Amino acid sequence: MLYHVFMDVKIPRDLPAEERADILAREKAYSQDLQRQGTWRHIWRVAGQYANVSILDVRDNAELHQILSALPLFPFMQITVTPLLRHPSAIRGDDS
Ligand SMILES: O=C(O)C[C@H]1C=CC(=O)O1
Which residue intervals define the domain Muconolactone isomerase in the entry (predicted)? Predict the structure, then answer.
């Protein structure tokens, strides 16, 4: 199943710099690993915001929840999930 996921990042200003850097490095590694596996199909920066729009391809709601709640930045993000299905007018073969 495909999901559109909007992640709005709000890291507290008073988080120590070392801790912030560690979380961001782990977040990047985690996200890139899932991208290599094909689970995290797309990630886009939202212009002008510390936020991203992502497309994840997972088995079900439970797997999506497991993946998102394990994000190192999870405690510092507002996440909005929208389930997707193939549009009847779609012509691309790889979007379902
Ligand atoms: O920077 C972000 O948008 C947050 C986050 C999500 C994946 C990743 O590598 O960073």
Answer: 1-89
